Amino acid sequence: MDDLKITRFRPLKQVLVHDVFDTGFNGWMVIMPNFCNEGFEQSPSIVSKDQWPPCMLSTATFRYPGSHGSMSGQYSLKISTRAVSSPYAGMPAPGSMGHGIKRVSFWGRPDLLQFETWFAYTAEQDLCDGEGPLPGLHENSVRCFGFGFDLQQRGGKRHFAGVRYLNAVDGRPVRKWQMIWPWAKDDKSWAYDTEGDWCVKGVDPFWFGKRHPDGRHEGFIDVPDGGQELCYNETDCKLNWQYFRLLVDVKKYEYLEMQCQDKVFDLGRHPIYGTDPYARIEGLMNPLAWVETDAPRRSFLYLDSVVVSQE
Predict the structure, then answer these.
(1) Low-confidence ranges of the chain (pLDDT < 70)
(2) What secondary structure does DSSP assign to the chain, as a single string?
(3) Does pTM surpass 0.85?
(4) In this predicted structure, what is the pLDDT of residue 128?
């Protein structure tokens, strides 16, 4: 069965991870605060992570149809937000984002690294509002979701490589892909004009980096020709599983290409930003995924399965 299930992917020569969440968590968990100060206290930061919901194994249960199940089984990995949100141009509200991460390490010195998944996304089926057609469709409640890597090869810099689908900004549909590339002017700007925050420019772009009302984010740039309408069915309780792939060069640290559904995007060998290495994490190769809500209602990202491969 595993051989049949992997045929839905396009892995590179060496498959490092083939996680089918019908069999369990497979090592994926929420990103937690760093409890590394005296008294097991968090590192002080302007951004709070202690309200992020945990990852769940989910049958995708909804009010009307009951359990949806996964793409080919019962369980998927559910990454969710709480029912809180800030305006897009503000800091992320505590609980407005959810993250899933798998903590693994590099094996050898590959040239290429690839992340693949089958995913679905939706808002919570909890209310109807608005007027006109489909008043219960809350697609614009989902602000964004994304996939990528936190990387630090032995003797090298730390790199965050990834893309996000910017779905909506303050209720306005945007529907385009953006890739991680920090363009904030300095560390202070990266931390929302805060002096002395532990996070430096380029690290954790999911929740750091100023945002602008027009959809710009100082941690991301637009993917060339990156507009795409994804499949979001007629109500919030209907899931459509969709394919995603991101390929990066980890020898030169460049973006190569990404794919969603049947559309392939040439990322033009755009460089992947590197920061000074962090202590005690040499060999880091963590795949990750995240979702953010754009409204005071929960948003969900479901991963049926994930493949990470290299060559």
Answers:
(1) 1-2, 33, 35, 37, 42, 128-136
(2) -HHHHHTTS---SEEEEEEEGGG--TTEEPPPP-EEETTTEEPP-SS--TTPPPPEEE--EETTTEE---SSSS-EEEEE--S----TTSPPPTTSEEEEEE--B--S--SEEEEEEEEEEEE-S----SSSS-TT--GGGEEEEEEEEEEE-TTS-EEEEEEEEEEEETTEEEEEEEEE----SSHHHHTTT-TT-SPPTTS-TTT-S-B-TTS-BTTEEEEEEEE------SSTT----EEEEEEEETTTTEEEEEEETTEEEE-TTPBPPEEPPPTT-TTEEEEEEEEEESSSS-EEEEEEEEEEEE-
(3) yes
(4) 64
